[in-house]
Amino acid sequence: MDEAAQVLDLFDTGGKTLDTQLAERTTNRCELLVGDARQILLQMPDGHFDCIVTSPPYWGLRDYGVPGQIGAELTVDDYIADLVRLFREARRTLADDGTLWLNIGDSYTSGGRTWRDADAKNKGRAMDYRAPTPEGLKPKDLIGVPWRLAFALQADGWYLRTDIIWNKPNCQPESVKDRPTRAHEYVFLFSKSEKYCYDWQAIMEPAADPNQKSKNRRTVWNVNTEPYPGSHFAVYPKALVRICVAAGSSKNGRVLDPFFGSGTTGVVCNELGRDCVGIELNAEYAELARERLLRGR
Ligand SMILES: C[S@@+](CC[C@H](N)C(=O)[O-])C[C@H]1O[C@@H](n2cnc3c(N)ncnc32)[C@H](O)[C@@H]1O
Q: Cα separation of 162 and 165, whole Å?
C-alpha cells in the first residue's frame, strides 16, 4: 500500500486506557484502510474477495465532511458514474464466482431549494448545498436512485440477480400527508459471472407451513434499523448484513466493504468468522470503526 491508504492497526492502542484490555482480543479479522476507495482499490489484487457487502452514501443527503466524498456530486448522473467506476474496480478484486450486495436508499428532488435544512434528530442530514433537480424531473419527484444505479451497473457488466426490499418496521415517521411514509430501502444482489456462490441454505427463513421447517429466503426482508450511539449517522443493521455475508461467503472467506463507515460489515465478519477489508475516507469514522471492532459489537 502506498501513501494513498493509511492502515489503521486495530491492535495498536496508542496507550489509550480505553483499549488496554480490548487490545488483547485476538479475534479481529479486519483490515481497515483509511482513504479514498477509488484509489485504494487500484492497489488490490485481482480475484481476492468472495463478496462485497456495502452501502454507499446516498446522493445529496448527507455531508460526511471530507473532500472527495461520494454522494456530494452536483448531478445524479455524476454520482452514478462515480459509483459505476468504483464498482468496476471492485469487481476486478472479486473472485469470478463472487457477488456484490449493495444497499441503497432513494431521495426526492429539492423543489428548487439549494440547501438542505439541518435535521435536529439527524445532524448528518444537514448539507450546505442541495443538488439541483435533475434534468427531466420535477419538484417532489422521487429520483429513483437505486434503479438508476442498478441499471447502470448492469450495463457495465454486472449480472443483476435480484432486488431485495429491506422493509424497516421501525422506520422514522415523516410529516408528509400526500404520500405514504417511506419504510424501505433496496439491497441489490449482483454477480460477477452467470454462475456464482450463493449459499441459499445458510439464509433460509422460517416457513408458515408447520409441516415445513424452513423455506428459500424471500425478497422482502423485515429488519429493524439499529440505533448506533456513535457519531456516524447512516449505520446499516447487523441483522441485514448477516444475511448477505452468510449467503455470499463461506467460513474463512474474504469480504470487502469499500464504504466501511462505522464498520458494521467488519463486526459481522468477526462474528461469522470471515476476513474483512474495510475502506473508509473519513478518518474520524475509521477511528470509530476501529473502536467498534475492538469492542466486537
Ligand atoms: C452510508 S455510509 C456507510 C455506513 C456503514 N455501512 C455503517 O454501517 O456504518 C457511507 C460511508 O462512505 C464513506 N465514503 C464516502 N466517500 C468515500 C470514498 N470516496 N471512499 C471511501 N469511503 C467513502 C463516508 O465517509 C461514509 O462513512
A: 10
